[in-house]
Amino acid sequence: MDFFPTPKQLSRIKLAVFVLALLPFVRMAWLTVSGQLVEPLQFITRGSGDWTLYFLCLTLAVTPLRRLLQWPWLIRLRRMLGLYAFFYAFLHFLTFLWFDHFFDVQAMWKDVLKRPFITVGFSAFVLLLPLAITSTNGMVKRLGGKRWQWLHRLVYIIAPLGILHFWWMKAGKHDFGQPILFGLIVAALLGVRLWWAYSKRAAAPAAAKGCSGCCH
Q: What integer pLDDT is reported at residue 202 of this predicted model?
């Protein structure tokens, strides 16, 4: 289906995505402030973690959808989706640092080193930091396109780490439904990229042979 929005339409799409992506945070904040939650800390922690994974999956889905639907303009949404993944990851980390440890960095660090599922989650958050910092056009120019692309491929490590963190968290309750679903989605999105890379490499020698035959 061909759809090529005008600049004005694209601005409206970006605004709609921005507002929709912010709604989960607004809901969490409202339910907490209004006192409607029995366990607000648990609700915010779980909600922010879930939405981090949702936005990581959406960010990874942009390129496959762009190629499948032939909508090149979708790439204009990827940065925003990635920044929202960082936003909810930061909120998830903040609840851990604030409510679990009351900003006691030393106690937090001991917890990170002691509990493997927190170690994995913290590692994913740390790897997200350079991606968020270098998300501006200015940083793309400073780093150069190729180096910027290589840096942002860290998301291929971050997403599996986030799922492993989620898996270990759910392991205590033997509730693996959501982690398995997230795992399958991320595996499919990364698998598509591996297939494209393999196909590109396989096609290169054939193209070279064809060119060689034409030259002779």
A: 79
